[in-house]
From TrEMBL:
Annotated HTH luxR-type domain residues: 144-209
SUPFAM superfamilies membership: C-terminal effector domain of the bipartite response regulators, CheY-like
Highest taxon in the source lineage: Bacteria
Residues modified as 4-aspartylphosphate: 53
Keywords: DNA-binding, Phosphoprotein
Every Response regulatory domain range: 3-118
Pfam families tied to this protein: GerE, Response_reg
Full protein name: Response regulator
Organism: Nocardioides zeicaulis
Disulfide bond recorded as keyword: no
């Protein structure tokens, strides 16, 4: 069961998402219709995942994402938006969102995304992942001192898989490790690189060419 907060200014859509989450066995700990309500209820509700619309009447979902993660860096934000525009997707990811779905996604896709995001995976509507990775690669700066030297071989191996978009479950199966062991390696890597979440880690790995085949 995942604790979830739903933020959307359209009552029918907000209610439908809440019903789908509850029917799947998850706990909706708070709902909000705008950014002000969301930030007022977020601290006490302490959701693991926030399903957040990008277009809110009083503020942008990008602003709300930044404020939420500033308050609680361990929270996960899944954008659920009508927009699939490149600028909107990139702004949300740069603000710290862990996933981005367009509202044409099915109920099953939404539920799956909530679970995966709660576990630290990055989740995108098909087609958007390549857009994000391509843009991060384009804006990557030239190489500086290589911090990879402080990572173990296993951490580097897992980081390469993270950079290609593999989930923890897929990595665990590929390396014949437990899900928890993979998570521990990723957490150690985050600590060594002084990063807060998998989105930052993925971007760093891409900028350093770890999404490319070795050799």
């Amino acid at each position: 069961m995942v604790s979830v907060m739903v933020v959307d200014d359209h009552p029918m859509w907000r209610d439908a998402v809440e019903r789908d989450l509850q029917a799947a066995g998850h706990e909706v700990v708070a709902v909000a219709s705008n950014g002000r309500e969301a930030m007022a209820r977020f601290p006490a509700a302490a959701p693991r995942v926030v399903v957040l619309d990008l277009q809110l009447p009083d503020s942008s979902g990008v602003q709300v994402t930044s404020m939420m993660l500033e308050h609680d860096p361990s929270a996960r934000v899944l954008i659920l938006s009508a927009s699939g525009e490149q600028a909107d997707v990139l702004d949300a990811i740069k603000a710290g969102a862990t996933g981005y779905l367009v509202k044409s996604a099915s109920s099953a896709e939404l539920i799956d995304a909530v679970v995966r995001v709660s576990e630290g995976d990055t989740v995108f509507t098909p087609g958007l992942a390549g857009l994000v990775l391509g843009e991060f690669r384009r804006i990557a700066e030239g190489p500086a001192d290589d911090p990879r030297d402080q990572l173990t071989e296993r951490e580097t191996e897992i980081l390469r898989m993270v950079a290609t978009g593999m989930s923890y479950k897929q990595i665990a199966a590929r390396l014949v490790l437990s899900h928890r062991t993979v998570q521990n390696h990723v957490q150690n890597t985050l600590r060594k690189l002084q990063m807060n979440n998998r989105v930052q880690l993925t971007r760093w790995a891409i900028e350093h060419g770890l999404d490319e085949p070795e050799g």
